[in-house]
Design brief:
Blueprint: E1 2-7, E2 10-13, E3 18-26, E4 32-38, E5 45-50, E6 57-59, E7 67-72, E8 77-82, E9 91-98, E10 112-113, E11 117-122
Parallel strand pairs: 2-11
Antiparallel strand pairs: 1-3, 3-8, 4-5, 4-9, 5-6, 7-8, 9-10, 9-11
């Protein structure tokens, strides 16, 4: 069993920054972590992922160059640094984990999900 807990969301003005954290506990060896977001009335969409061995990163085109995913293995925590935020980044952000490789942009790939953290970007 794996548990994920997100934190770090909040209200920020356009152009600002936030850092989301995803604390992972349980059977966590060699797992990949993805970040997704869901805005009201929209489907959950892929944002970013970090591969099983912590070296390969993946980003949606909409956040490439603005967001950075990273991991602190000592803390079993994955971060999503979000810079140059835009109002369209407003959503609930979720982290998820999987022991499998590849296809990280698909929600069905993931076995465990956190409860989400709200990010609101004002214009």
């Amino acid at each position: 069993q794996v548990e994920l807990v997100e934190s770090g969301g909040g209200l920020v003005q356009a152009g600002g920054s936030l850092r989301l954290s995803c604390a992972v506990s349980g059977r966590t060896s060699r797992y990949a972590v993805g970040w997704f977001r869901q805005a009201p009335g929209k489907e959950r969409e892929f944002v970013s992922a970090l591969g099983r061995y912590g070296y390969t990163t993946y980003y949606a085109d909409s956040v490439k160059g603005r967001f950075t995913i990273s991991r602190d293995n000592d803390k079993n925590t994955v971060y999503l640094q979000m810079n140059s935020l835009k109002p369209e980044d407003t959503a609930i952000y979720y982290c998820a984990s999987t022991k499998d490789s590849g296809a990280y942009s698909y929600t069905g790939r993931y076995d465990y999900w956190g409860q989400g953290t709200q990010v609101t970007v004002s214009s």
